[in-house]
Design brief:
The chain is of the alpha/beta class. The chain has a single domain, classed as P-loop containing nucleotide triphosphate hydrolases (Rossmann fold), CATH 3.40.50. 27% of the residues lie in helices and 28% in strands. The protein has 4 helices and 8 strands. An 8-stranded mixed beta sheet has the order 3-4-5-2-6-7-1-8, covered by helices on one side. α1 packs across α2. The longest helix is centred in the N-terminal third of the chain and has 14 residues. It is globular.
Length: 172
């Protein structure tokens, strides 16, 4: 069985724009999604999650959960589970921590450093790769796997393509 796929690339010119992209993404979510955030230190993964949380109506500050591995936030109608696997050595440690269950719950799950547990993640998901592009500029490449996530990516692309000044889009 083939899984439907789609891609979208967005150029962010500042941390504020990265947060705005996250907010647009958050406003498109419907619940029970897994969002994987891959990128080097300082590429804006947590900044994107801050915006995502704002788009969900989370009213408290978002911080990287590096030292606690996971934080949960209540949005207006949806919950956000934010996992930061930077300090997790491998999939075995992730499973032993009990965090694997979060991937199959009802909350939206944002996973930083997902490449460490790639084979444990659902096949249907949104994978976002963030890359430095000089200065504060970042290249965000979105890969949707599964019809639900392809639809999500279309909604996000439509939202980001609004006529107001915003991030530069490259749709693939």
């Amino acid at each position: 069985m083939l899984i439907e796929r789609a891609e979208l690339t967005v150029i962010s010119r500042s941390p504020q724009e990265t947060e705005e992209i996250g907010e647009a993404l958050g406003s498109c979510l419907r619940g029970d999604e897994v969002i994987s955030l891959e990128g080097e230190l300082g590429t804006g993964k947590t900044t994107l999650v801050k915006g995502l949380a704002r788009g969900l109506g989370v009213g408290v500050p978002i911080a990287s959960p590096t030292f606690v591995l996971a934080s949960e936030y209540a949005g207006t109608s949806l919950r956000l589970q934010h996992l930061d696997l930077y300090r997790v050595e491998d999939a075995r440690e992730f499973v032993a921590s009990g965090l694997e269950d979060a991937l199959w719950g009802e909350a939206i799950v944002a996973v930083e450093w997902p490449e460490k547990v790639r084979h444990l993640l659902p096949a249907a998901r949104l994978w976002i790769t963030l890359r430095h592009s000089g200065g504060d500029q970042r290249r965000l490449h979105f890969e949707a796997s599964g019809s639900r996530y392809v639809d999500l990516l279309r909604r996000l692309g439509d939202r980001l393509a609004q006529p107001e000044p915003g991030p530069a889009l490259e749709v693939h």
